[in-house]
Amino acid sequence: MELGTYDKPLVEVRDSLDLANKEQRIEELERKMEEPNFWDNPEEAQEQMKQLSSMKEDRDTYQKLVSAKEDMETLIEMGQEEDDDSVVPEIAEMMEEFKASFDAIRIKTLLSGEFDKDNAIIKLNAGAGGTEACDWCGMLYRMYTRWAERKGFTIEELDFLDGDEAGVKSVTFQVNGENAYGYLKSEKGVHRLVRISPFNAAGKRQTSFVSCDVMPDIDKEIDVEVRDEDIRIDTYRSSGAGGQHINKTSSAIRITHMPTGIVVTCQNERSQFQNKDKAMQMLKAKLYMLKLQEQADKLSDIRGEVTEIGWGNQIRSYVMQPYTMVKDHRTNAETGNVDAVMDGGIDLFINAYLKWIALGTGAKEEE
């Protein structure tokens, strides 16, 4: 895109972000914050502060884009009037920054789903591939952790099970940050690794699989009935990486919802009560999402546990030998820089997925 072609897209972004109404809402909340009883309900006040911060960020980001465009136009005009080519490198650098900022805010306009703004809960399960699959599970856990760090998000580990020899059999963790679910819903599915396994003495190329289930951390107030007779609650001893705060007593909780077969676990809170509370929250969120998907006749998509972790179900392939390539099979987005992807550089795939969903196409990510 040349600079002049951004006029219409900028207007579309402004309208998609609903900045006129947000500006009005910002003024209302700022007046409300000055009221003496604003902090009488701390939970509500915190939520309103969060809303205010988010709306201000959208407004300020858009205003910076408009200002940057105007600055470049002025610089171009001055260079043309004075026949000065020395401004070209500066304009090129400004243009690259402008494009990156515009793409980021344009992607944000695609996050309009009911739960897109929520935190995300991810569960990784090692599938076919034995020890190699467990190692692959640990690699994906690190990839998502690095991605979250880049975004300024935080990771809260909820459940962890070591592999028998190496890596991770399964891990459940929460990614806390604005639009975390909106971004990470793109990762739901089976991830396939092809490489020469360090665990294979013959040095043969091996294929392994890990399933990734993603759901929003829906507020506790969602209207979902969970009957006592429909669930089985088991306690067990916490184990695995878990960190310094993990409780080694039998405080870990596993809840099985017998009508659906959904199983949720939590072991990393400080007490059995807290683990049970978090696990029940996760179960309600899963049941709520299941209900929504049933209405849309997409039950198989939300019940990740019943998806076979193997051939034919992968959403993305990561090939490390004999060549390097990461390719998303839904959008056709791809890159040869596997190391960058494994270090958290997955925005290419997230952005391509969001555009693919919005446009209903499998076109490649725009260059």
In words, what does this structure look like?
With 367 residues, the chain is α+β, with helices and mostly antiparallel strands. It contains ten helices and eleven strands. The chain has helices at 7-16, 19-33, 42-82, 88-109, 130-151, 180-184, 272-295, 299-302, 338-342, 347-359; strands spanning 120-126, 154-162, 168-176, 189-196, 205-216, 231-236, 252-257, 262-266, 314-319, 325-328, 334-335. A hairpin with a 5-residue loop joins β9 and β10 (325-328). The N and C termini lie close together (10 Å). It folds into two domains: 3-109, Release factor (Methane Monooxygenase Hydroxylase, Chain G, domain 1, Up-down Bundle); 120-359, 2-Layer Sandwich (Alpha-Beta Plaits), CATH 3.30.70. Strands 2-3-1-5-4-9-10-11 form an eight-stranded mixed sheet. It has a three-stranded antiparallel sheet with strand order 6-7-8, with helices on one face. The longest helix has 41 residues, at 42-82.
The neighbouring-strand order within the major sheet is 2-3-1-5-4-9-10-11
Number of domains: 2
- What fraction of the residues are assigned to beta strands by DSSP? 15-25%
Rg estimate, integer Å: 24 Å
Number of helices: 10
CATH level 1 class label of the largest domain: Alpha Beta
| Low-pLDDT segments, ≥5 res | 241-247, 298-307, 362-367
Q: What's the CATH architecture of the largest domain?
A: 2-Layer Sandwich
By oligomeric state, this entry counts as single chain
